[in-house]
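Reopening this one. Same input as before:
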Amino acid sequence: MLTIFERSVFRQFLFVNAVFLCVIMGLFTIIDLFDNVDDFVNHSGEGGFPVIAMKIVGYYGKMGLFIFDAAAVPMIAISLLTTMLMLKRKGQIKPFLSAGIPAYRVLTPALLCGVCVMTGLKMANREILLGNAVHHLHATRGKSQSQHRVAPRYDHASHILIDGWAVYPEANRIEQAAFVLPPEIAGNDMICLKAAEAKFYPKQGKRPSGWLLRQSEPKIDNIPLTEAGRQYVIRSRQPENVFVVSDVSPDLIYKAKESSAFLSTRQLLLRIRSPAIDSNTARDLEFNLHARIVEPVLTGLMVWIAIPLILRKESRGMIIAAGNCGLWLFIVIASTYAVRFMASGSLVTPVQAAWLPLYLATPMAVWLVNLVET
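Same output, byte for byte:
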């Protein structure tokens, strides 16, 4: 149970986070809207200002979810620094130290509760909202549907090449789809299965995930499917359509690496276990999964790092203390980005790369314990 003072610190920490979030969102909206307001006007039709305003609010509201996910950890670090500086400036910690209460006992419960709230909001945002809204990150301003060029990708379970002219992630469809069936599927030779439109359907019950090709050419009766091929190329209820079983979803055929960081944990696990995913993509997914496990612990350690740096025994002033604390917190946060390059460059395994920032922050937190003011 938090004391009155701890509840005050907790509320102040959340208030500072809210202010920083509003500032970040406001700056992003103003700067981006200044350069791209024509896109909303050109795609609004005859609706006038109310329609334009609704499109602007809808677009930047969705983008705010991604901004919060990306900025949550730096925002927590800045809020820790700001909250403790305000407490030190007002002299609210000295009476507790004079009574013999340790600085960690005064600040840790309230700050850790605040960190848990912010981390929980970020996790809920990612698990509930972002997992099925990744396409909003690359959406065209003012349009209900965005068009992207297809990046051809192999399904490594069936060795089918999935290609096409354009992908519409909001509608889960490919325009002018071209699925190249290998000899293991189509018989003695490769066959290009073409369709004006292919729509992706996720797994539901006993039905596997895959693509429904409408009015495909050639017809399924004209394809000498092998025994393995009949497991991946299935006749639809409509004779002119074909269903191709695949775990390769629309976001994997455009900007797959950028999108994987915003998937829910369940989606990450399903993709890591899927035989359709290539090894390079699986490495990125494994890194993201372990980074999510490390992130809450690393964010909690920032509290133990920030307290002794702000409330140091031999402090030379608030400005120097703030700069010193900001530098070390920046190093911790920067390490989480640096290890991504180490994993992508195969310097270490993805799992090792994801856990390296924790190996840096833990000794730092232990080393700084004896420097705190008593």
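So the earlier flakiness isn't reproducible anymore. For the record, The beta strands are 148-149, 153-155, 160-163, 166-168, 173-181, 191-201, 210-214, 233-235, 242-245.
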